[in-house]
Design goal:
By secondary structure, this protein is of the alpha/beta class. It has 2 domains: 171 residues, P-loop containing nucleotide triphosphate hydrolases (Rossmann fold); 79 residues, no CATH class. 36% of the residues lie in helices and 23% in strands. The strands form 2 sheets. It has a 6-stranded mixed beta sheet with strand order 6-7-8-3-9-10, sandwiched between helices. Strands 2-1-4-5 form a 4-stranded antiparallel beta sheet, covered by helices on one side. Strand 1 and strand 2 form a beta hairpin. The structure holds adenosine-5'-triphosphate. Keywords: ATP-binding, Nucleotide-binding, Transport.
């Protein structure tokens, strides 16, 4: 790739005491298509997302988005610069409507003027109107338009996941990191989410990285795959090449997750 677009991590290391969660990992995720991040349990996938999104400070290495180094940025600054993520466990505000949960994502749109914040004025009418429209669009994009006024607790699990994804895309991310978005869904819901993600990436055009264990889904969804194992980079490339790669066979497919191959 090496064209300075997309997400690039270089020489990332993270240790938790004696555990090396990431061991000098360098890899790239292109701005086009959808990237899969694969690896057996404990490979370091979530840790990599944590570093990119600012939740984990690495002991070494750098993160660049479209060529810009994020080194000094904390979580909030990264959201404002367009790095948005979801979590393995769905995190929603249960006392707010689906609409209000998704509207929270608009906070990443840099519409707060610092002066207005200092004066406590909040957003102007035009900005609030824009946020409203962006929220409606995000809900429509994931097929939740008719559920906007429902409470999260009323929704089945797959739809709760979609609320989280809508909230993420409401921030117009440059980089969208999805940590096992299909976990806990049946096959029908997974295939529906797959179509949604392809549509979201195609129409909004961000760098999208999806952690996913199901190889069949990865093959259908992803145009590029990065494989980690034991905190180390193993391989990267198109899904079919990755599946056939002996290094990947020896690590990822040798593990419990081979059942999905
Ligand atoms: N906060 C933490 N404290 C201590 N060890 C941690 C912490 N977070 C992760 N680890 C360890 O770091 C390693 C990488 O974990 P990580 O969660 O990044 O892997 P993963 O590939 O996302 O795994 P999974 O597929 O099971 O979610 C594991 O050995 C894990 O136990």
């Amino acid at each position: 790739m090496n064209d300075s677009t997309g997400l690039q991590v270089d020489d990332l290391s993270v240790e938790f005491g004696a555990v090396t969660a990431l061991n000098h990992v360098s890899c790239e995720f292109p701005a086009s298509g959808i990237s899969g991040l694969l690896g057996p349990n404990g490979a370091g996938k979530t840790t990599l997302l944590n570093v990119v999104s600012g939740f984990q400070v690495p002991s070494s290495g750098s993160v660049r988005v479209n060529g810009s180094d994020l080194a000094a940025d904390g979580i909030r600054a990264r959201v404002l610069s367009g790095v948005v993520r979801t979590f393995q466990t769905v995190r929603l505000l249960e006392k707010e409507t689906v609409f209000d949960n998704v509207a929270l994502g608009c906070e990443g749109l840099q519409r707060h003027s610092p002066l207005r914040q200092v004066l406590g004025i909040g957003k102007g009418r035009a900005a609030r109107r824009r946020d409203h429209d962006v929220t409606i669009d995000a809900l429509a994009m994931v097929g939740l338009g008719s559920l906007a006024q429902r409470m999260p607790a009323e929704l089945p699990y797959a739809k709760r996941r979609l609320v989280e994804i809508a909230r993420a895309i409401a921030g117009s991310p440059k980089v969208l990191l999805l940590d096992e978005p299909m976990a806990g869904m049946d096959r029908e819901a997974r295939l529906a989410l797959l179509d949604t993600l392809v549509e979201v990436q195609g129409s909004l055009g961000m760098t999208m990285v999806v952690v996913e264990h199901d190889i069949d889904m990865v093959r259908r969804l992803c145009t590029h795959v990065v494989v980690l194992a034991g905190g180390a980079f193993v391989a990267a490339g198109p899904p079919d090449e990755i599946v056939a790669d002996p290094r990947v066979q020896a690590t990822y497919f040798g593990a419990e997750d081979a059942r999905h191959q």
